[in-house]
Amino acid sequence: MLLPMVTKMWIVDKGVEDLKTCAQIVDAARLIQQGEVVAFPTETVYGLGADALSNQAVEKIFVAKGRPSDNPLIVHIGSIGQLATVVSQVTDDAQRLIEAFWPGPLTLILPKQDTVADLVTAGLETVGVRMPDHPVALALINAAGVPIAAPSANLSGKPSPTTAQHVRQDLEGRIAAIVDGGATGVGVESTVIDMTVKPAMILRPGGVTFEQLQTVLGTVEIDPAFLLGAEESPRSPGMKYTHYAPEGELWLVNGEREAVRKRMESMLREARQMGCKTGVLVTVENAAEWEGSDCADAVLSCGSLSDLGSVARDLYGVLRQFDSLGVQFMVAPVFPRKGMGLAVMNRLEKAAGGRVVTA
Fold first, then answer.
1. Beta bridge mates, 304
2. How far is it, in rounded angstroms, from Cα 209 to Cα 196?
């Protein structure tokens, strides 16, 4: 049972020259060293961190989030020197990816060191590890002096947090502290790639695209198991359970633009007749079409089709905004599965629980 606690909240200016000695970072690092759980910003989303070498500390992550214990965690390191404390082998291909994308939103699955807490790996012989590209995250890890295991800092299943306020909404009273380093940049979690197989296999699309990985490795495969319906034990966060979901019912609509809009309008009117408050996710390209809509109570814009990275940055915030507006039924378009669109669609399909229709 989780007893309510006072959650400290510190605002940290990521522009400070020596963040490692910043009083708030020092205090947050001390909590990590004491086996507590601290939320902190990364370039992807906010993470919920604990000492990756301590089962007792890591267990508090699962309790705070309400997260299933067979769902592995990613370990965050603050320097290349810490990598040897987490993994037992770095392949040549893994080294190439490290040189190309670290620090950055790429998690490598590699053989684990025995020092890593069993709860981190969910009993697997491998571990996911990355070096975040955020000065506050790096300062915290290095000040704590231990690798930090950190899933997203939200209640399990809800949209991931891209601001400290999102963390506070979900976890205040459930964790020791929140380090507020401002809004995140990428907006969706890191790409997870399994380097223990040949060719390397993407287990979760994210901030580093399939195309970028191809430029370094040549051949890269995408594991179909990250799609909904996978039954085996997950080898990566986000593979098994419905994630990123708003409180209302989300449907995705596929097809040509005009047909998609008409199908959305029909679905929204039907939901309204059933007494639901309705919402539609749009992009800047079609926002004007929905102005003054007579079937959507909330019309929220999420980036641009010409820049799917902007859709990724806005996505979780928009899903949470639907919740804050009390929207019970919402529709969103299907996005192209290229570049960051692959990660966007992975998150939307999980958020919708597989509810997709064709216009």
1. 307
2. 19
Tokens linked to 356 = 């997709």
Question: Amino acid letter at 180?
Answer: D
Please report the DSSP string for 155-211 in residue order.
STTSPPPSSHHHHHHHHTTTSSEEEE----SS-SPPEEEE-SSSS-EEEE--SS-HH
Q: Whose CA is closest to 349, among 204, 215, 273, 242?
A: 242
> How far is residue 83's CA from residue 301's CA, in Å, rounded to a whole number?
40
Longest dimension (CA), the chain: 60
Q: pTM for this structure?
A: 0.93
For residue 137, what are the CA distances in angstroms to 32, 228, 312?
13, 31, 21
Distance CA 307, CA 327 (A): 26
- Mapping DSSP onto H, E and C, the string for 29-82 reads HHHHHCCCCEEECCCCCCEEEEECCCHHHHHHHHHHHCCCCCCCCEEECCCHHH
Low-confidence ranges of the chain (pLDDT < 70): 1-3, 226-242
Question: HSE (CB half, 13 Å, CA atoms) of 224?
Answer: 1
Joined together, the tokens standing for residue 162 give 């891209």
pLDDT in tens, 105-138: 999 999 999 999 999 999 999 999 999 999 999 9
**Which of the 8 DSSP states describes residue 244?**
S
Q: C-alpha 15: how far from its chain's center? A: 24
Q: Among 141, 137, 84, 130, which residue's Cα sits nearest to residue 103? A: 130
Burial class (CB in 10 A: 0-12, 13-18, 19+), 319: buried
280-285 long-range contacts, CB within 8 A, separation 24+: 280/330, 280/331, 280/332, 281/318, 281/330, 281/331, 281/332, 281/333, 282/333, 283/311, 283/333
Rounded CA gap, 95 and 81, in Å? 13
Assign residue 275 a region (left: φ > 0; alpha: ψ between -120 and 50; beta: otherwise).
left
